[in-house]
């Protein structure tokens, strides 16, 4: 089953639309853009600069979460929170501390970043990773991590077959490469095909993912620190459940990273 997942991840989708689009997904080049300028996926402007999907202005519009945030779950603090030196702990972590030691996200799940993730996930365009990679490189340039293994939150096999690639896998792979950490995808398996978290309210999100994963190859997890990666952190229920299973398998520390944090 695992090798199948790998094969599917390597496979380039054959559902990419026109020949030109397929060619662009596979061999994106600035020269091609010069002759056939494509509209920016976010603002529709014809792109003369920028990347394979976004114009330069939309690329610049993506903002990183930097100032005060909850030191456990990473949720940005209210702007009225004035003492940035004091460690901020949000209400939700105060009442129910998460299983993971800390969670961080690159940006807020809105605007251009939200659109990029949407194109990657539902537009089935793995080429979007070419826009995401430079963001990850900037984000991690001053956030080094040592002695961690990178594990993506897995999709259910059925969903993987529909989508033909796994966005968290692709993001995790890049994160591992950038941080120069080992990639460890074969330690979690999604055993239950859960409903999309976005369609549920908070209590149902918790219920929805409870028991959704099981651990595989526990000896690979034991006493190791894991950086668990997902595309979007909505309530944190999915990453928290993944962390719970990894801790059951005797993982040491579990940190969570997501590309975007829902607000
Ligand atoms: Zn644009
Ligand atoms: Zn928190």
Core attributes:
single chain; 263 residues; alpha/beta; Rossmann fold; five-stranded parallel β-sheet; two-stranded antiparallel sheet; 14% strand; disordered N terminus; binds zinc ion
Provide a quick synopsis of the model.
The chain has 263 residues and is an alpha/beta fold. The protein has 11 helices and 7 strands. Residues 40, 42-43, 45, 54-55, 57-58 line the site of one zinc ion.
3D structure, described in words:
By secondary structure, the chain is of the alpha/beta class. It has a domain at 2-16 and 98-261: Rossmann fold. Helices cover 37% and strands 14% of the residues. Strand 6 (225-233), helix 11 and strand 7 (254-261) form a beta-alpha-beta unit. The chain is globular. The relative contact order is 0.15. The model is unreliable at 1-19 (pLDDT under 50). Bound molecules: zinc ion (ZN) (2 copies).
Architecture (CATH level 2) name of the domain at 2-16 and 98-261: 3-Layer(aba) Sandwich
Mean pLDDT: 85
- Cα-to-Cα separation, first versus last residue: 35 Å
Strand and helix order? HHHHHEHHEHHEEHEEHE
What percent of the residues sit in helical stretches (DSSP H or I)? 25-40%
Radius of gyration: 19 Å
Report the structural category: alpha/beta
Give the CA-based shape.
globular
Major β-sheet profile: 5 strands, parallel
Q: Can you count the beta strands?
A: 7
Overall CATH class of the domain at 2-16 and 98-261: Alpha Beta
The name of the CATH topology of the domain at 2-16 and 98-261 is Rossmann fold
Count of separate DSSP helical elements: 11
Listed once per kind, the bound small molecules are: zinc ion
Low-pLDDT regions: 1-19
Strand content: 5-15%
- Strands in their spatial order, largest beta sheet: 1-7-6-2-3
């Amino acid at each position: 089953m695992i090798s199948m997942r790998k094969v599917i991840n390597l496979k380039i989708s054959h559902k990419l639309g026109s020949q030109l689009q397929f060619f662009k997904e596979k061999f994106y080049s600035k020269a091609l853009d010069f002759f056939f300028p494509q509209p920016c996926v976010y603002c529709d402007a014809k792109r003369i600069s920028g990347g394979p999907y976004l114009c330069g202005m939309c690329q610049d519009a993506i903002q990183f979460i930097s100032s005060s945030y909850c030191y456990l779950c990473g949720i940005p603090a209210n702007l009225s929170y004035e003492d940035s030196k004091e460690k901020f702990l949000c209400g939700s972590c105060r009442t129910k501390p998460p299983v993971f030691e800390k969670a961080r996200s690159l940006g807020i799940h809105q605007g251009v970043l939200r659109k990029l993730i949407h194109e990657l996930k539902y537009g089935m365009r793995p080429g979007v990773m070419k826009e995401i990679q430079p963001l990850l490189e900037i984000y991690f340039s001053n956030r080094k991590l040592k002695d961690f293994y990178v594990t993506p939150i897995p999709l259910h096999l059925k969903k993987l077959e529909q989508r033909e690639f796994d966005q968290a896998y692709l993001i995790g792979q890049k994160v591992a490469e950038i941080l120069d950490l080992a990639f460890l995808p074969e330690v979690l398996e999604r055993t239950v095909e859960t409903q999309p978290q976005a369609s549920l309210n908070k209590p149902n999100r918790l219920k929805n993912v409870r028991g959704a994963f099981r651990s595989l190859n526990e000896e690979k997890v034991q006493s190791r620190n894991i950086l668990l990666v997902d595309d979007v952190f909505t309530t944190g229920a999915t990453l928290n459940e993944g962390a719970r299973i990894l801790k059951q398998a005797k993982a040491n520390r579990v940190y969570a990273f997501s590309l975007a944090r829902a607000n």
